[in-house]
Specification:
The protein is mostly helical. The protein has helices at 3-35, 46-80, 96-101, 109-114. Bound molecules: zinc ion. Pfam families: zf-dskA_traR (PF01258).
Length: 115
């Protein structure tokens, strides 16, 4: 994979993840807004408990998306530094198929499995 292709791969994943994060943030805001109409008593109000659970789920997904964005930012740095396809652990090559599936990965499949 040349640097241009690698950068395109990372940038595409970055923009998809940014869209996802924005959608999740909107969803969370909607849940928060809708929960303002309930009692907020999670323990005794079944609706409140459901909303709290949904909010937690969305919040977790949002955190994951933000972590992915940070990791993709680092991946872009690695492309620029010319070390994108080099495993951080063993210094060996990272397979192109693995990078395509996981653009933010920093290790080869062997090192990932060893963890
Ligand atoms: Zn490795």
């Amino acid at each position: 994979m040349d640097e241009h292709a690698a950068m395109e791969l990372v940038e595409r994943a970055r923009s998809e993840t940014a869209h996802l994060a924005a959608a999740l943030a909107r969803q969370r805001d909607e849940i928060v807004a809708s929960s303002e109409f309930t009692s907020g008593d999670d323990e005794h109000d079944p609706e409140g408990a459901t909303i709290a659970f949904e909010r937690e789920q969305v919040q977790a997904l949002l955190r994951q998306a933000q972590d992915d964005l940070a990791a993709l930012g680092q991946a872009a740095e690695r492309v620029r530094a010319g070390v994108y396809e080099i495993c951080e652990r063993c210094g060996g090559p990272i397979a192109e198929g693995r990078l395509t599936a996981l653009p933010a990965t920093r290790t080869c499949i062997a090192c990932a499995n060893r963890r």
